Amino acid sequence: MSDAISDRLGALGIVLPEPAAPVANYVAYVRTGNLLVVSGQLPLRDGTLLATGKLGGTVSLERGHEAARLCLVNLLAQVRAAAGDLSHVRRVVRLGGFIACTPDFTQHAAVMNGASDLAVAVLGENGRHARSTVGVPSLPLDAPVEIEGLFELG
């Protein structure tokens, strides 16, 4: 891992976990040329979801923000597994966020900022990305957030 990225992760108190294994018939990531597509990651810590339920229901905005941040940590763990280390990341191209929420919940962007803010904190300008964030009625394992990513590698 590059010293700068390693230093930023360390300063934030983040240790990348072992990447989670896929739970169904898909792969964790696909590399084509210099692009790396990482499948959706849940807010898992030591194999356990940080929270369950829906935003606007039993999950607070703050907990949703924290869950999105943890999803990005898990995305970075998959990127490290695919690329060997994070020094190969040229930029975060796109993040796609899925927020399990009640029909009246409208603060999707504030939840997704947990991931976006961390991407910029860790990768600087190369962490700035395009994104979409949508509300959904449910996610696997009753997770409140799932995030997928597209990365450019060098």
UniProtKB/TrEMBL annotation:
<protein>
    <submittedName>
        <fullName>RidA family protein</fullName>
    </submittedName>
</protein>
<feature type="domain" description="Endoribonuclease L-PSP/chorismate mutase-like">
    <location>
        <begin position="8"/>
        <end position="143"/>
    </location>
</feature>
<dbReference type="InterPro" id="IPR035959">
    <property type="entry name" value="RutC-like_sf"/>
</dbReference>
<dbReference type="InterPro" id="IPR013813">
    <property type="entry name" value="Endoribo_LPSP/chorism_mut-like"/>
</dbReference>
<dbReference type="Pfam" id="PF14588">
    <property type="entry name" value="YjgF_endoribonc"/>
</dbReference>
